[in-house]
Request: fold
Amino acid sequence: MFNALFPPQASGRATPGPDPSDDVFALLPKLRLAARLLLGDVDASDRLVERTLEQAILDVDRRQLGQSTENWLNGIMREMAKTRGAKLMH
Reply:
């Protein structure tokens, strides 16, 4: 999980960078926007992103092989919004 969050830096060799759809840091703005569209509240949407990332850490072993990080996190977020969205509003 650490490598997914903090991809190793190239050590002087020219290697292709990680796919942007697999870079959690690059995905944060998209996740925040998606959460705001789902909940319509800035604070609640940030809590949803936080809960999504926490759940991803817990569920990393259940991620489908070959599934992009973006799709995986969006699926977790949709489920979190459906099951806990109202609680995040308070």
